[in-house]
Amino acid sequence: MTDPAGRDAGPLDPARGAGVSFPGNRGLAEGDAAVPAFWRGLGLPGLADVHVHFLPPRLLRRIWAYFDAAGPLVGTEWPIRYRWSDAERVAYLGRLGVRAFSALAYPHRPGMAADLNRWTLDFARNTPGCLPSATFFPEPDASGYVAEALAAGARVFKVHVQVGGFPPTDEALDAVWGLLADAGVPVVVHAGHAPVGTAHTGPEPFAAVLARHPALRAVVAHLGAPDYRAFLDLAEAYEGVRLDTTMAFTPFLDRLVPFPDDERPRLRELGLAGKVLLGSDFPNIPYPYADQLAGLARLDLGDDWLRAVCWGNAAALFDLA
Ligand SMILES: [Zn+2]
């Protein structure tokens, strides 16, 4: 099988499941060589990536196994490319020039989030460039541990409506949305149907949250794929709503849920207004990191737009030096 970028994708076998090997001598993996030249050419100090995953290693291995098996919530062949140790992935982000990044963890059942937050906040304390990141799940102690995470310095949250299988309007989350709105701390929300919709994904349930908490600073993951138009509407309607580019415009996602060409003007306006941020889903992607940047560049929305999306908008949101 050959993917749309023309690379030989190969069958889903153990060798392929192993991903690419970690390059020695400060090198970059196949496909990523042009990344540093990309941001240098734009005159940027590097990249800011709001959608990066770091999780406790045992949990991350289970997630990779789920992707390997193309589980029901994945729905398509999805060989993880960067299945390296935490230290290798941190080093690699540095080589790519990703100067600021999140460590998004997310629970798939109750009773996990508080432990995940201890892990991710500790990880950020020991990892230069990593934004202190936290998560939550609808459960009785959610507002308690979210308040604790905020007090401990959390600067970005993640909530995964698709994997979590809960409605974002769940009553147990109402106080959490309120806490985040009051604190002005952004939350990356996987609210869209992609890659496989559930009963609670899509624009409507999350629009109901925004109607109740209009000051919420939300970053809609994957540009809301596949409901790009409706999520662009929300970003226009609410001052606090932003979008991350995660996986959008890559050959991989274009094949499944392409972004509508006629929405490029709105995407340009929103990007220049601070509302579109680079996200990648590193390391849980089945293609080179460079594909994300190449996809953004191919949109041909101008260098100012690329500078805003790849650095400036996150620098403003997170007060990066
Ligand atoms: Zn993700």
UniProtKB/TrEMBL annotation:
InterPro entries: ACMSD (IPR032465), Amidohydro-rel (IPR006680), Metal_Hydrolase (IPR032466). Transmembrane segments: none annotated. It comes from the Bacteria. One of its GO terms (molecular function) is carboxy-lyase activity. Keywords: Lyase. GO terms for cellular component: cytoplasm. One of its GO terms (biological process) is secondary metabolic process. Residues 49-320 form the Amidohydrolase-related domain. CDD domains: metallo-dependent_hydrolases. Gene3D superfamilies: Metal-dependent hydrolases. This is Amidohydrolase-related domain-containing protein. It comes from Micromonospora krabiensis.
